[in-house]
Design a protein that fits this description.
Layout (H helix, E strand, L loop, with lengths): L1 E5 L1 H5 L8 H12 L3 E4 L5 H8 L8 E3 L4 E4 L4 E5 L2 E2 H13 L5 E5 L5 E5 L5 H14 L3 E3 L8 E10 H12 L4 E7 L6 E8 L4 H12 L3 E5 L6 H6 L2 E5 L4 H6 L2 E3 L6 H9 L4
Length: 274
C-alpha cells in the first residue's frame, strides 16, 4: 500500500498558494483509483485547511513540519510535540532585543488556537500578521497576556536576514528546539523563521502514519530544508525544479516547476491517470 505525501507551498501549490484546477482534477483521479495521499506542511491546521478543503484530504495531515498530526475525519490531533513558554522565552527575548516581534502560536486544552505578539510591529510584521489572520482565522492577542502553562506549537518571526540566521543558529544549538528559515518573497534582505520542538519532524510523523495506516511505501514531494527528513524517510522522493539544491541532490528525480503543476503532471504520467 502506497501513500503519497505532498509538501504544499512551493510544491503542490501554485504561485498563488492555491491548488490549481489541473492539480485538483489530478487529485480526484487519484481518489478514483484508490491511491491514498496526504500533506506534510509547515502550515498550521487553519492555513492548510484553507487550501485543502474540497480536495478530499481524508488521511491524517502532518502540520507545522511534524509538530502536529491532525485526523480530518475525527477532527482531532493524533500526535503533538508542544512547547511551554519557558522553552522559547530566551529566543523571544533575543528577537525583541533586535527589534523583531515573535509571533507565538498556542493551543489550549480545548485545542483552540491563538497567536500572541507584541503591539509594536514593523511594516513587514504588520503584513505578516494580516496574512496570519487571513490564513488562520484565529484570534491574535498581546504577548503580555499569554496564559501561564499554555502549550505552544511554534514561534514565527520575520526580520533582517543576518539577524534571523544568527538566531536560527542559536536555536539549533538547543537540544529541544529546531529552527527553519528562508528568504521572504517580498524582500531579499528579509528572512522568515519558524521555531518548534525538535521532536516534531516530517520523517517522524510519516513513520507514525505508516504504522497507523498500514503503509508499505512512501512517495513524497518537497522543495525546501524542512523536507529533508521526509525525503530521507521515503522510498521515493521528488523535487520540483524550483526546489533548493540540497533537496534536488537527494531526490529520486527532479520534476517540473511548481508553477507548471509539476507534481500533478508527474502523477498523471506515473500512475497513467486519464
Amino acid at each position: 500500500m502506497e501513500l503519497l505525501v505532498f509538501d504544499l507551498d512551493g510544491t503542490l501549490l501554485g504561485k498563488d498558494s492555491r491548488i490549481s484546477t489541473f492539480t485538483g482534477d489530478t487529485l480526484s483521479m487519484l481518489r478514483e483509483r484508490g491511491i491514498r495521499y496526504t500533506a506534510a506542511t509547515g502550515r498550521t491546521l487553519h492555513a492548510a485547511s484553507n487550501v485543502l478543503n474540497g480536495h478530499f484530504f481524508d488521511e491524517p495531515i502532518i502540520l507545522k513540519n511534524g509538530v502536529l498530526t491532525f485526523d480530518p475525519i475525527n477532527k482531532c490531533y493524533i500526535e503533538t510535540h508542544l512547547l511551554e513558554f519557558p522553552d522559547i522565552n530566551p529566543f523571544n527575548t533575543m528577537l525583541m532585543e533586535h527589534g523583531i516581534t515573535p509571533f507565538v502560536f498556542t493551543i489550549d486544552i480545548n485545542h483552540d488556537h491563538a497567536i500572541y505578539h507584541r503591539n509594536h510591529l514593523s511594516t513587514s510584521e504588520k503584513k505578516v500578521l494580516q496574512l496570519f489572520g487571513k490564513e488562520t482565522q484565529v484570534p491574535t492577542k498581546p504577548l503580555e497576556e499569554i496564559p501561564a502553562g499554555i502549550k505552544i506549537s511554534n514561534v514565527s518571526a520575520i526580520g533582517p536576514a543576518e539577524v534571523i540566521n544568527k538566531i536560527c543558529d542559536s536555536v539549533n544549538n538547543s537540544t529541544d528546539l529546531v529552527a527553519y528559515s528562508g528568504q521572504a518573497i517580498e524582500d531579499s534582505n528579509i528572512n522568515w523563521m519558524d521555531i518548534h520542538h525538535s521532536a516534531g519532524s516530517k520523517s517522524r510523523a510519516v513513520k507514525v502514519l505508516k504504522e497507523k495506516l498500514g503503509i508499505d511505501k512512501i512517495i513524497c514531494f518537497g522543495d525546501s530544508d524542512n523536507d529533508l527528513s521526509l525525503f530521507l524517510e521515503s522510498d521515493e522522493a521528488y523535487a520540483p525544479e524550483n526546489a533548493k539544491q540540497v533537496i534536488k541532490n537527494i531526490a529520486t528525480a527532479v520534476i517540473s516547476h511548481h508553477q507548471e503543476d509539476g507534481v500533478a503532471r508527474f502523477l498523471r504520467s506515473r500512475f497513467e491517470l486519464l
